[in-house]
Write a structure and sequence with these properties.
By secondary structure, the protein is of the alpha+beta class. It is built from 17 helices and 17 strands. Strand 14 and strand 15 form a beta hairpin.
């Protein structure tokens, strides 16, 4: 659709909307006037009945002898007089016939019980509360129109007649207005108004269309020039233009032609810049995605292509939600960033580290990289650094402790030989001291063993056979504790070069941790598999599991999740695995057991 046609439609639509607004205002005014008149008639009716009831009660009650001696009896007499009055229902019926929208007039006494009513069937029945007619008048114009149109709710005008000093009224006059009768009275007038407004709507729209056509006729030539620029061309002044507008249009078209030439130059520059950016992004390790203001992918780097395992040409031009489903964490994060126009900094989404930059032109630049690999490398580097620092510290401390400890042990034996002959009762105390010295000596030896440089003695071995021997060694102990041991893949060949003693120590620490995690019995699974020229041993228990926040710390020296643990076993396992150029990971669902994965490189051509 041309620019001229769009502008003509907009102007005509505005004229039509203004006409509809004027009609709506007129209809609302008409409904308001009808409601005001109805409210006035209903109010007059209620006060007329109130005056009649007041006069009638005083007249008839005054003739009663003797007169009641208190106010309660006098009020009861008034209600009895009104309830027995035969002329009051006839008066209410005649009054009802003169009021078009009123369907019922009731006079109620104590507890809202009807004493007299234009409908004889309602006498003795409590009056039903209705919405006040004023509430309909207070509605906004649209709600008021819909309520009148539907005609499903009746309204009331209520007047109370009481005596001074009493909270409860003596009489309550209720005038009921039917919404159906109200609609039948108002809607014909509304229809007449709407029909009378149709010519106004038609002629105003036609006039707006004609005026817009005359005023916007020169825009046809300008629209053609803009279309030429959009297609990358520039042409002369459009033919067939109104002579009165030729000079102005020619000036505009000349400026548009110059603008078109600049636009083509900018297109060429943008194309060259795009090629340079693509060559640059191909050298980056991050996956780069460029989105336009509508959320479509306009560029994708080669790294991103490899990450998604798709062809760049297949996803270019697609919306972000088509490539990254919003139901997945990465897609949801991208949709939130693009929708809210808020940047994202170093957000870990699944296995990806996501950064989103919002561009001034309305687009966005998303950068992704593997967060899991980076986290694992950082944790391993931090752990290695901490272990090296702790090794240097504990090595010196252990040597400083061991020498005095040996001296204390010798002095204790000397003390035992001198004291026991004279004080036999001290045997128990001396034994406790000796046991604590021996325990401390074991701790110091463990420190020294851990911090002492290890020279591994490598030889050819079968990792499956070695693991199977350890499992069979622990099986009787596991069965006594109610733990069933299940193995898989241990029979297949898994040749590697390594230190058998170190590997046994590393695997034994993990296996014992699994058994100790199931004091009430459970299942211990040991599985050997081969992945990418590596042997992977998975040791899985059904214990309470290791909290997710503690998994990065379990390989730290002296850190333990067990109350009586020293935090040395898994640290030694980690060191032994690293010495064999392997890796160890811990996982498992929260509260559902722990899984340790130990990876070792296979040797020769048998790793498959």
């Amino acid at each position: 659709m041309s620019l001229r046609a769009r502008l003509m439609l907009i102007l005509t639509g505005m004229a039509a909307v203004l006409s509809l607004i004027l009609v709506a205002i007129q209809i609302n005014t008409l409904i308001q006037i009808w409601l005001d008149q109805t409210d006035e008639r209903v109010t007059l009716t209620a006060h007329f009945v109130k005056s009649y009831v007041q006069d009638r009660a005083q007249e008839r009650a005054g003739a009663v002898v003797p007169q009641p001696d208190n106010l309660d009896r006098r009020m009861a007499l008034w209600r009895e007089v009104i309830a027995r009055d035969r002329e009051l229902p006839e008066l209410l019926g005649r009054t009802l016939a003169q009021r078009g929208s009123v369907v019922e007039i009731s006079v109620a006494g104590e507890w809202g019980r009807t004493l007299a009513c234009s409908n004889a069937d309602k006498v003795g029945v409590p009056i039903t509360p209705r919405l006040p007619l004023q509430s309909l008048k207070d509605r906004n114009p649209l709600d008021r129109f819909l309520l009148v149109w539907n005609g499903t709710v009746d309204y009331e005008h209520r007047v109370e007649l009481g005596v001074e000093g009493r909270k409860d009224p003596v009489f309550t006059i209720q005038v009921l207005v039917s919404s159906v009768l109200l609609r039948d009275a108002i809607m014909p007038e509304v229809g007449k108004t709407a029909i009378a407004s149709l010519p106004l709507f038609f002629f105003s729209s036609l006039a707006a269309w004609l005026v817009a056509g005359l005023a916007l006729r020169p825009l046809a030539g300008i629209s053609r020039a803009i279309d030429q620029i959009a297609s990358g061309q520039a042409g002369p002044a459009a033919p067939g233009v109104n002579p009165a507008a030729t000079r102005e249009l020619a000036a505009v078209q000349e400026k548009l032609r110059l603008l078109g030439e600049q636009f083509r130059g900018a297109q060429m520059g943008a194309s060259q810049l795009r090629d340079s950016v693509e060559r640059l992004t191909e050298r980056l390790e991050e996956g780069i995605f460029l989105f336009d203001e509508d959320g479509r992918i306009t560029m994708c780097s080669e790294t991103a292509e490899r990450m998604l395992e798709v062809n760049r040409g297949d996803i270019t031009g697609k919306f972000a939600g088509e490539v990254f489903p919003p139901t997945e964490p990465l897609g949801a994060a991208l949709a939130t960033a693009l929708g809210s126009r808020q940047p994202v900094r170093e957000a870990v989404v699944g296995r990806q580290m996501l950064n989103v930059d919002i561009l001034p032109g309305g687009g966005a630049l998303a950068r992704m990289r593997d967060a899991e690999g980076r986290r694992i490398v950082e944790n391993q580097l931090n752990l290695s650094t901490r272990l090296a620092a702790i090794s240097r510290l504990t090595s010196g401390v252990a040597h400083e402790i061991k020498n005095p400890l040996n001296s204390i042990a010798l002095r204790l034996e000397l003390l035992r030989s001198r004291v026991l002959p004279e004080m036999p009762d001290a045997t128990g105390e001396l034994d406790v001291i000796a046991q604590e010295i021996m325990r401390l000596d074991r701790v110091v030896r463990t420190f020294l063993d851990f911090t002492r440089p290890v020279e591994i003695e490598t030889r050819d071995l079968d990792l499956g056979q070695l693991t199977g021997e350890l499992v069979e060694l622990l099986r009787p102990e596991a069965e006594r504790g109610g733990v069933s041991v299940e193995t898989s893949g241990l029979d297949g060949p898994a040749p590697m070069r390594g230190d058998a003693d170190l590997l046994k120590q590393a695997l034994m620490n993990v296996l014992r941790n699994g058994l100790e995690a199931m004091p009430d019995g459970g299942k211990l699974g040991v599985r050997l598999s081969r992945e990418n020229n590596e042997a992977v041993i998975c040791i899985e228990d059904t214990g309470p599991g290791i909290p997710r926040e503690s998994r990065d710390k379990v390989f730290q020296l002296y850190y333990s999740t067990k109350k009586a643990g020293m935090g040395i076993g898994l640290a030694m396992t980690y060191r032994a695995v690293q010495l064999h150029n392997g890796g160890v990971e811990v996982g498992g669902a929260d509260g559902e057991g722990t899984v340790f994965r130990l990876r070792f490189p296979l040797s020769g051509g048998d790793g498959r």
